[in-house]
Amino acid sequence: MSPGWLSGLLLLVACGPSPALHEPEPASPVEIAAAPGITSVRKPAAGGFQPYSSSRLASGTTYRGHYLCSQGDTAMTLQIEEVMRNGQVRGVFGFHHEASGAQGSFTVEGSLSSRGEIVFEPVEWITRPPRYVAVPFRLFLSEDGRQAKGGVLHPSCGEMEAARVD
């Protein structure tokens, strides 16, 4: 396997194929929402995000929302399957890009910090559409656990936002 092939593969993201495979790169790259500025979603502001208690994130919780990657805005679902005492979290991440019809899902694992941050790493595909690659993402949970904001940790992706489904 040549290094050139591997770098070409890395241009593909969990959400979809890179536009570089079909059209020229955009003039300005997409800003990564998971960059240092993403912590601003946790700063107090009238009803803003505060430190989060892991006791409020329960197994069986589902979040629905959307995120931005190279293929455009994409619907997502995060099902929290297990929250352990040590802060480890396991779940299933699902996505659907309406414009192309692409959809898929993969298992994820993460660790919930005392600040309400969870960095999820992909574990295994459940349903993988052609040319998609699973990548990690970061979420910051609101104090009451009803909102999650963050970003996909890939250079061609950006913000992610979701709300808990009751």
Could you characterize what this model shows?
The protein has one helix at about 5-10; strands spanning about 60-70, 70-85, 90-95, 100-110, 115-125, 135-140, 145-150, 160-165. The chain is mainly β. The chain has a single domain, classed as Beta Barrel (Lipocalin), CATH 2.40.128.120. It has an eight-stranded antiparallel β-barrel. The chain is globular and about 40 Å long. The termini are far apart. Mean pLDDT is about 75; it is low at about 1-15 and about 15-50.
Provide the fold topology.
Blueprint: H1 3-10, E1 62-69, E2 72-83, E3 88-97, E4 102-112, E5 117-127, E6 137-141, E7 147-152, E8 159-165
Antiparallel strand pairs: 1-2, 1-8, 2-3, 3-4, 4-5, 5-6, 6-7, 7-8
Gist of the model:
By secondary structure, the protein is mostly beta strands. Helices cover 5% and strands 42% of the residues.
CATH topology: Lipocalin
Task: Please give the CATH architecture.
Answer: Beta Barrel
Uncertain segments: 1-13, 17-52
Helix/strand order, N-terminal first: HEEEEEEEE
Features:
mainly beta; 8-stranded antiparallel beta barrel; 42% strand; Lipocalin; 5% helix; globular; disordered N terminus
